[in-house]
TrEMBL record:
InterPro entries: Puta_zinc/iron-chelating_dom. It comes from Geomonas terrae. This is YkgJ family cysteine cluster protein. The lineage of its organism: Bacteria, Pseudomonadati, Thermodesulfobacteriota, Desulfuromonadia, Geobacterales.
Length: 102
C-alpha cells in the first residue's frame, strides 16, 4: 500500500456547567482539546495569572474576552499533559470530550 490509512477517532466536545477534574478518559488522551482549537477565552484574572506564568501567546482585548492562543498546541502542554493543571483557566476545567455517536 502506497499510503497508509490513518484512522481518526471522532470526538464530541462538551462545555459542562461545572468543573471536572481528572476524568479517566483524559489520562490516555493525546491532549486533543489543547491542540484542536484556535484559542480559549480568559477572564482578566486568568489573563494576569497566565502572564505571570510566562505565557507568550496571550491576546488582550478591549471589547471582548481576553484569549490564550492555543492553535497548534497550548504552550503549557508538557507532552500530553497540562503543565499548569491546578491553575488552568475555567473553560479548560469545564471542557470534556467523548467519542462521537456513529
Amino acid at each position: 500500500m502506497l499510503f497508509a490509512r490513518h484512522h481518526k477517532d471522532k470526538r464530541h466536545g462538551l462545555l459542562l456547567d461545572h468543573p471536572l477534574d481528572d476524568p479517566s478518559c483524559c489520562r490516555e488522551c493525546a491532549a486533543l482539546c489543547c491542540r484542536s482549537f484556535p484559542n480559549v477565552d480568559l477572564t482578566w484574572e486568568e489573563y494576569l495569572r497566565l502572564e505571570e506564568l510566562g505565557a507568550t501567546r496571550l491576546h488582550f482585548s478591549l471589547y471582548g474576552p481576553h484569549k490564550l492562543i492555543i492553535e497548534n498546541g497550548c504552550e503549557f502542554l508538557d507532552g500530553n499533559r497540562c503543565g499548569i493543571y491546578e491553575g488552568r483557566p475555567a473553560i479548560c476545567r469545564r471542557f470534556f470530550c467523548r467519542p462521537a455517536p456513529d
